[in-house]
Amino acid sequence: MHSYRGEWLLLSVSLMAAAGWFVSKNVIAGLPPAAFLGIRFSAAALLFLPFALPALRTMDAGQWRRAGAVGLAFFLNIFLWLMGVAHSRYFGSGAFVFSLSMLAAPLLSWLLFRHRPPRVFWLSLLPAAAGLYLLTGGKGGSFDTGSLFFAISALAAALFFVLNNQFAKHIPVLALTTVQMAAAGILCGAYSLAFEHWPPQVASVVWAWLALCIVVLTNLRFLVQTYAQKLCQIGSAALIMVLEPVWTLLLSVWLLNETVGAAKAAGCTLILAALVIYRLPLLWQQRKTAKAGKAA
C-alpha cells in the first residue's frame, strides 16, 4: 500500500472527479448553472490566492496574457461541460464522450503548435470513432442536447489541455491555476448577472453541496492530484485518470438508474479501449527506462 501511495491517491482523485458530475447536478437544481460556476471558481481562486500571490507578483505581461488565454479556454471547457450536465438525465454516455478530449488534444496540438502525434494515436482513433458512433449515432444511440454539449466541451477541454501544457512550462503552477479559476469565476459570474435569473431563496442543502464542491472537489482535489503525481510515474497516472468515465457510468447506474444496453456498453468499451491504447506505450516506455536504469 505504501509503495503505491501515489497510485491510490490518484485513484481517489478520479473518484472525486466522477463525483463532481453528481454534486454539480445537485447544486444547479437550486442555483443557475453559470452562477454556480461563478461562485465555485471565484471562491476556489480566493482560497489559493494567499499562497499564489508571491508568484503572481513576479509574472510579466507575457505570462499574464498566456495565463489569461488558458483561463479563457478553461472557462469554455467548464461552462459547456456544465451545460451538458444541466441538459442530461444520465451521465454515463456523456462521460465517455467527454473523455474523448484526451484524443482531441493531440490533434489540436498538431494544428496549433506542430507537435506531431505518435503513431499509436492514429491507431486509437479507430475504436474511438466506432465507440462514438455507437453512443451517439448508432443503433439504439441518440444525439441529444446533453451529448452535443459534452462533445463540444470535449473540444474546449482539449484546447485547454494543449494551451495549459504549452504555457505552464513558463508560469508557476499555483499562479497559473489561480488565474484559471479566477477567469472562470469572473466570466461565469458576469454571464450569470447578465442572462440568468436567480431564485428568491436558495435552500441550505444547495449551499452545503456548493461548499463540498468548492472545498473538496476543487481545492482538495487539485492539491491531492498535484501531490500524487509527484509520487508515481506519469504513465501510471494517465491510465488511472482514464478511469473517471468508468466511475461516472457506474455511479450513474447506481444513483440515477441509468440503463446500459448493448450499444451503449459496446460504445463505452471501445472508447475506453482507445484511451488505454493511446496511454499504454507511455507506461511501457517508463518501465523500460526504469529497468535500464536498474541494470546500469
TrEMBL record:
Keywords: Cell membrane, Membrane, Transmembrane, Transmembrane helix. Residues 6-136, 146-277 form the EamA domain. The chain crosses the membrane at residues 34-55, 67-84, 90-113, 120-136, 148-164, 171-194, 206-224, 236-256, 262-284. Its main location: membrane. InterPro entries: Diverse_Substrate_Transporter, EamA_dom, EmrE-like. It is a multi-pass membrane protein. Pfam families: EamA (PF00892). It is found in: Cell membrane. This is DMT family transporter.
